[in-house]
Amino acid sequence: xxxxxxxxxxFYKQKETLDNFLERDAISxxxxxxSLNGLITKxxxxxxxxxxxxxxxxxxxxWRIEDAPSMFKYASDPAVGxxxxxxAHKDIEESKxxxxxxxxHPYCYAICLKEDIDHPIGCIELNLKTSLCRxxxxxxxxYWLGKPYWGNGYVPEASKALLKxxxxxxxxxxxxxxxxxxxxxxxRVQEKIGFEYQRTDDNYVVVQLNTVRIAHVSLLTKExxxxxxx
Length: 230
Ligand SMILES: CC(C)(COP(=O)(O)OP(=O)(O)OC[C@H]1O[C@@H](n2cnc3c(N)ncnc32)[C@H](O)[C@@H]1OP(=O)(O)O)[C@@H](O)C(=O)NCCC(=O)NCCS
Known about the structure:
The protein is of the alpha+beta class. It has two domains: 1-50; 53-228, Gcn5-related N-acetyltransferase (GNAT) (Aminopeptidase, 3-Layer(aba) Sandwich), CATH 3.40.630.30. It has nine helices and eight strands. The radius of gyration is 18 Å and the shape is globular. The two termini are 35 Å apart. Bound molecules: coenzyme A. Residues 80, 83-84, 143-145, 150-156, 179, 183, 185-186, 188-189, 192 line the site of coenzyme A (COA).
């Protein structure tokens, strides 16, 4: 691991301790802010390094244009995009175009293994103002992972951390998620992280594939999330 990454990792370990103190009311919000700002200054943490979500095995960080080859490696596999509703990437230029779009999405993160944060293996996002959202305090979770990494529980792990961020820090009250009929892998993820089935849309238009599918819609309320995690 590079020297800089070691410092950032240490920062996130210390931040986690502070987060735990705050959660247990062992320190006030004012003390928390002072300590956190002190750490940021002392360790020279940049805004990019600050905009990360760190879990046991993963780092979720903003996409960078130099990630295009990594994105292409996985997004060029139709087994990844087709279940999500988009065609496989045809070349690295296409991945660059998508990354440029993602950079402007506020809560779109590259999923990276902690030991190699320079080569993302997937993507996770809280999408705002989608067709499922009924008001400003609702958003929608979306995700995909490179095929070689399926089956390790990485997306549930990343989702739980992003949901916590969405409910606790960003203030959302409802988070939606959906999967297209037959995508039992995504159905399982949604079950594992607490989403509850709401309805089925028999005529869900998949614009990028110019087709219509059956979509199963589920949601997680902040109240249920708090109950599941208390
Ligand atoms: C859906 C997806 C994100 C799951 O991520 P993940 O990190 O592999 O999630 P999990 O490890 O929890 O596995 C979920 C389920 O997938 C199935 N699964 C796991 N590995 C598999 C593999 N190699 N082949 C087929 N199915 C597999 C299992 O049923 C598993 O459930 P289980 O843990 O109860 O056995 C991933 O498969 C993916 O990116 N698929 C393509 C894109 C996609 O469908 N995105 C979601 C659109 S709604």
